[in-house]
Amino acid sequence: MPWLKILIGVIVAALLLAVALHFISDAGPLNPVKNAIDSLVNVQKKAPGEALSFQAASNTAATNSRLLFNLTTNQSVDGVRLEDAEGNEIACTATLVNGANETNKIWNINAIFDVPYSGDVFAVIREGETWTRTDKSVPLVIVNPTPVPTETPLPTQVPLVSQPTVAPIVESITAAPQPTVETASQEGLVPAITWAPTNAPLPTEAPTGEPTQAPTLPPTEAPTAAPTAAPTPTAVPAPTTAPTATPLPRLDASAGSGSLKTTDTVYQVGSKSAKSITFSRDVSYVAPHPDNYSFYPAGVLTFRGDNFRRNAAYGTANVTKQQLSILWQTPIGYLRTEDNGTLYGVGWTGQPAIVKWTTQVREGMNLYDDKKATPRLREVIFGAQDGKIYFLDLTDGSATRDPITVGYPLKGSVSVDSMDRPLLAVGQGISKLPNKTGSIGLHLYNLIDGKEAFFLNGRKSDTQIQYNTNGAFDGTALFLNNNWDTDAMVVAGENGLLYTVDLNAEFIYPKANDQDVKLSMSIKPSVVYLRTKAGAEKEAGVGVESSVAMYDKYIYMADTYGVIRCVNSDTMKTVWAMDGGDNIDASIALDMDGDSGVSLYTGNTAYSRLGSKNDVTIRRMNALTGETIWTYGIKCDYDKGQLSGCKASPVIGQHSISDLVIFTVNKVKDGGSKVIALSKQTGSLVWERALTSEAVSSPVAVYNDNGDAWIIQGDQGGNLTMMDGRTGAVRNTLNLGGAIEGSPAVYKNYLVVGTCSKDNAYMYGIRIE
Q1: Is the pTM above the cut of 0.85?
Q2: Pairing mode of beta strands 719-724, 730-735
Q3: Considering 50, 203, 268, 747, which has the largest number of Cβ atoms within 10 A of its Cβ?
Q4: Phi, psi angles (nearest 5°) of residue 51
């Protein structure tokens, strides 16, 4: 058949031509033919990678400072780097945002410019052995830093009532050298303190620098108008010794009317199986005055600032314009989960810590060399939903050290040891990823080397019996070591267990300029936990998503069924338990009522018990008896995700708003959310501010030197709203472009807060002006 012969001949000729073209030079005359055939043969060949976005944390920087870039590609690439406008490679290090378990699409790039530069910086990607310069670039200006002039020290001012005096600690352990203090800048930064303990006996009370006067008590009735501004403080000489601390009154708690019957079982971890014990603590836990939560004025170390969970702000701000502006933004990654989709940025509760380390600790940790040498470094530390713990410089958002990779989403807020020891605790939120399932619990990290020092398991085991199977820790730990007899941590988990952990830390703290002794730390934890349920509470509902609060030896916690508890840490037994009506996710906040009482403030959510028919309830309770003093109800829409009602934790007002408590209520009947200010004394509404977007982020109060107050609230629409603390009047609104679920922290005129949108997942540094 002639046609068959012709067809076979054509096929053979084509094959011979293809073989011949394979050896033809790319510069030969038949190269176009070769390319055409290659394109047909390799039609399925992968297209080259492209850059989708390329950003820098800042477009300006000083020489010899670290600058962070973030690059996202359309497909997995093998490497990335930076080039200047002339194609010269810029020295840098690149790390994957999501580790080895994710496709290589999102990269963080750290670069240090040792000479001034002005021009574009281009992203370059590598596929196989081929480097390709992308069309994405950022303009950059690198300049030599301006020398800091010598400044005349500012006069010391009279401290605000109930505000700790910001002064160097001069009382010391017997035979220990006096502290050396680095000069603070004009912004009034806390001086870095160096202190070397010896084997000499410890004093009975830590030097704290607390004012000698007791806090001013709240007025008996809510004022009808904003109070007159306090007069400008008169400058006085700095004290030569630290003021005598005014301890909190020691008040006893006992069950009041209506307390629920509870079933309490106490266990001590250590044996091969869980065995209940009759427990009595050898040395009592005694929580400090909340003004003295940290050993020295270090910043914001835990969720809502202290053991009373009152606020998340350190120091006072110089507010002149009543406005907010973005100083810097640092990108955060994402992580795909098995059951919760893809999580981005910083989630609820997600409040950063802001820490001013002492000199020896800063110089002894694994910080980058340029950050070790920064005497007034204030480090922003936070856990993110991409499974990493980040460390940033408060002033410019640049990385201070490599992030710690946990590998699973972190939803809770970090807590830093309050004794100036480089120890950090953070709770894990999820353990199931598409390709693996891991352990879940609370992680403790040694920040000297970034290694895990201890893992508190959240799941049921041979040594742990629990009602709830959820092993996550959304709540934030409290560290207790300010009375020198206690070296402990207190935390509750979603498994419903309340843990007390004796850390038994060994901490070697070198003397100033001592090169022979290195900073080191180890811990040998001893764990006791309480399993408890109350009344008609179902076992599956006994979980704790909020953070515990603490007054004296009493621990306060609220669970997902709605039971509010006071637990005596000496015995780990419930003192009283009251029904709060429905799931409670907002952390309990405490406040002193003079020398005779302690108040507890809390609010619930509209979930399985309230639905949409019954009011969400905010309440003030007697923290010593559990009895309700007043309630305030507000209509909210039911939400199966437990987001309706009081998801945010309150602000306990101080100074000019010392008569107010501030709550944020989500998914109100009118739509959106509301910030409401209630009278502490009566529970009556003083002011409210409606927000068009929903809000689960906790509000933060900012005060100036006169005690004037502003409330700043983040919401799901990406807005930061700045309100007058006395009236609720909006002073300024700043939109960040991404949903805000995490809570902000404030250090003087700086605010830091994270976003969690797919196209906007950043940690932001905000200037309060």
Answers
A1: no
A2: antiparallel
A3: 747
A4: -90, 125
